[in-house]
Structure formats: C-alpha cells, structure tokens
Amino acid sequence: MLRIRLPRPRVNVPNLHLRWLWMLLVRLAWAWPRRVARTPLRGVRWVLRWVWLRVAATGRGIWWVIRAVGRFFLAIGRGIIATPGAIWRSPVKAYKKSVVWRNWLLEKVEYLQSESAKWKTAFNILKSPYSFLRMMGLSPQMAIGLLAVGGTAGTGVIVNETVLADRSFKRGDAGVYAAPLDTPSAALEEMLAFRKENKNDNTLRIVLGVVPVREIKIENVSVGTVYTGGAIPSSAHTSANGTAATSTAVLIGGTVVSGGTSTFLEVGEMLLEKSRCSYLYFDNTTAHTINVIGNASDGQSINQTPGTSRMRAIGGGHHQADTMVTSGGSYDRIHIDAPTTAINGKIGKLTLSNLYTEGGACVFDRMKIGTLTIELNEIGIADGFSTKEFKIHESVTAANWNVSDNVEVSIGVPSETLTNE
User: Closest Cα to residue 395, out of 251, 285, 302, 292?
Assistant: First the structure.
C-alpha cells in the first residue's frame, strides 16, 4: 500500500516556552488527527488483505483441482490410445523373449550334440582300425587287405572274422542283417550257416520280420562275378508259376515256407534303375502302378496283365525302423526276404540303383507293391533276341501300366573284369 508522509511544519521559535507551546499545537493540529485517521484505514487494509488472500487461495485451489482432473482424464485418454498398440505389441514382445530362450537352449543342445559326435568318433577310431580306414574312404576290401596282409586284397574277398567283428550295413559290409539292425545278426548267421559252409561267402542279406522298415537303399555296388575272384553261391531259384533261374545274383521277395504259410514282401514304392543284370525276372507280383521305361535288353517279354491291386503305403508309427542305406561295396550276392512263416516283410521305399551284376539273374518274386518303377536298366548276355533275358511274367498284375521306350539291342556280359577294390 502506498504511504505518503507529509513533512511536519517547522518554525523557529526562540523561546523555550513558546517552543513547547508550538509543539503542543502541532501535535493537536497534525500528529494526533493523522494518527486517529490512520487507525481505521489500517483496519480496512487488513480486511481487504484478508479477503484477497482468501479469494486468491480459493482460486488456486480451484485451479489445482481443475488441473488434477484434467491430468486424470488426460492419463485415461493416453491409456485408451495406447491400449491397442500395447495389445498388438505384447505378442511380439513375448515372442522375442521366447526366441531368446529358444536360441539359448538350442545353442546348448547343439553344443552337446557336437561334443557327443566327437567323442563317438574318437571311441570308434580307438576301438576299430577297420572303422578308421573305412572312414578315410577305403573300400571294405582295401581296409581288410591293409589290416590282414599289409596290402591291397588282390583276389576275391578275404573274410577275416576278427577284422569284421565291427561289420556294418551302412559301411557296406557283407552279412545277414535282421532289419532294422545295422550290425549282422549272429543268431541268423549261425541258423542260416552263413560262411559256415562257404568260408568265402560274401553275401549281403536282409531278413525282414514284424518291424516295418521306412526305407532300404542299396546303390553303387558290384555283385556276382563282375570282379576278379567273385563267385555266386549256390542260389538256384524257381518261381511258382514263374521263371526258373539256375543262380541269382540278386533275389528279392517273399518266401515259400515249407509246411507253413508262405510270405510276401510288401513295398510302398520300389525303384530299380540304372542297373546291369544278365537276366531280369519279375514273378508273382501285384502292384497298383507299374512303370517300365527306357530299358534296353537282349530280348524282352513284358506281359501287361491287368489287375485290381490297391494303392499301398507302409507305415509303422513310432516303432517303425529307420532307413537302411548302403553305398558302395562288392558282394557275391544280394538277398532280401521274409523267411518267417505268415509274417510278410514290409518296406516303405525300396531303392536299387546302379547294381552292376554278372553271373546270375536278378529275380523279384512274391511281392505286393504300391508303385513299381523299372527304368534305364541294361539286361542281356548276347545270345540273341529269341531268348528273353528281360521278362515280366503274366503272373505280374497291375491296375495301371505305363510301358514306353523299351528296346531290344544286343547286350553282352561286361567286357571288363574289375578287381575287388
């Protein structure tokens, strides 16, 4: 509040008594009236200040309330606006977090698997020099020769039971295998007299039972007398209502069980391709579809007998056997059968590719197949077209036949005799 202080009138009064009188008059006329008038003004000023403070405080309170309410609704609005984005981003955030944990777990699993594979390889090398030589790319015969006689086996297959103690189907070792095992069955070899009657028997045989096999694949192998010293064991086969073969380099199919129930070989899909056979016979087989394409033979007889066989696939669920694959190797004979009475052998897919055979027939008998494909094979012994080295017997039936580009040409036995390396 603005205060105006007026100067007191001053008069020089020489006499002391007059000075006191003058001061009294001044107080009576100026100071006291001013003081009397100022007192109510102070009261009015106090009242006005009190009112102002209360009004201002109330205004600030109202403003605070308005601002708080505004901020509240603003926060609600922001939450409403942000909710769709949060809902949209929340799965992404959860997925990114799960990816982090997944990658961490996979890193640990991959590390353990790599370490396990390294230790397994190390133990295999330590326990078997033969396995080490096969791993280095040597054929089974070369590995046997290096271990047994310190050099390459030059004549036939020298079967050494101590060296072949760790035989394996995957590595292309001969033996009698009970599918789906990768190692030969000692019980079956003893029962079937494997190598007991013929110490140099080098047959690759797969015995099928109740367990279905997802796939069997044999490729890039030499069979029979195609290599120096090779010999086909006694293996004559006469198919019932089919073709007779004095010896078989390849025999695949079911079994006629004497005194029991004969068996068939059930196959979902079978492929025979790019192979060389002296004779190729198919007997007693039913299929939904048969494709015979691009085969060359020194005489052929393809009977397209119609049938009603269904489409076929082989399954076995969790207990189905895994794939049996071998690539490379030399054998006296290849034999796949189901010898147990009333139990058909079952294979999801059977692939025979680049089988180079000599000295015996390739025979397929007593089979039930979904799709059979025979393509780009060569068959013959150069004895003229009058004898039919490639024969699909009339006992083979199919609901669908696709036969094309098969030709008769003069094809002889392999002119080059290969060593067993």
Answer: 285
